[in-house]
Amino acid sequence: MTLTKSVLLVAATFGVGVTVLTSGNAQAATEVNPIPQVLRGSWYGKYQHVPVMYKLTKYTLQEGATVDGHWKSKPMTFHVKTATSAKNKYSLFTVSKQANKHGYWDLKLLESKESLYFKPVEHHGKSALYKYHIDREYGKPRLDVGYFYKK
Question: Which residue, 73, 103, 114, 128, is the most exposed by fewest CB within 10 angstroms?
Answer without folding.
Answer: 73
